[in-house]
Amino acid sequence: MNASVVAVSRSPTHSFSKPNVESIRLVAGLGIEGDAHAGETVKHRSRVAIDPTQPNLRQVHLIHTELFEELAAKGFSVAPGQLGENITTRGIDLLNLPVGTKLHFGASAVVELTGLRNPCVQIDRFQKGLMAAVLDRDSEGRLVRKAGVMGIVLTGGEVRPGEPIAVILPPEPHRRLERV
């Protein structure tokens, strides 16, 4: 299956869900134009409370639509943007990509993956029991966070639903994504 953008979302406020829009503009070094999480330094409230000068490694949040299908099989109803992601994808195993993977969107936009989203209590406030559904254990007993990946914008540009996504892996040795 070819990788593509299913939906794009942004919100100017620190709301949990983000409304879908026709397109988003990625700005190099900052994130999504008009999104509350855009900036060179951290914007997520929990991170700001710890150290507001930290670099923003969470400029763009991506979730694979296959997660929503998995959650639907467990009785949950989740649509693109509702878990706060900016870009909903199809056809990419986002969670198993290494740190430093570059995702090319459309004509020019490039996002570099920095880590995993660490799901928080807000997910259970959205739908009771959803937090447990987005966490799992792998065969070695390690915690698996399924609530998406985070990245930074290397090259700006417009991103729209339906656009293809090219995946460029970094040189080996690869490092697993960890929570950021």
From TrEMBL:
<dbReference type="GO" id="GO:0030151">
    <property type="term" value="F:molybdenum ion binding"/>
</dbReference>
<feature type="domain" description="MOSC">
    <location>
        <begin position="19"/>
        <end position="168"/>
    </location>
</feature>
<dbReference type="GO" id="GO:0003824">
    <property type="term" value="F:catalytic activity"/>
</dbReference>
<protein>
    <submittedName>
        <fullName>Molybdenum cofactor biosysynthesis protein</fullName>
    </submittedName>
</protein>
<dbReference type="Pfam" id="PF03473">
    <property type="entry name" value="MOSC"/>
</dbReference>
<dbReference type="InterPro" id="IPR011037">
    <property type="entry name" value="Pyrv_Knase-like_insert_dom_sf"/>
</dbReference>
<dbReference type="InterPro" id="IPR052716">
    <property type="entry name" value="MOSC_domain"/>
</dbReference>
<dbReference type="GO" id="GO:0030170">
    <property type="term" value="F:pyridoxal phosphate binding"/>
</dbReference>
<dbReference type="InterPro" id="IPR005302">
    <property type="entry name" value="MoCF_Sase_C"/>
</dbReference>
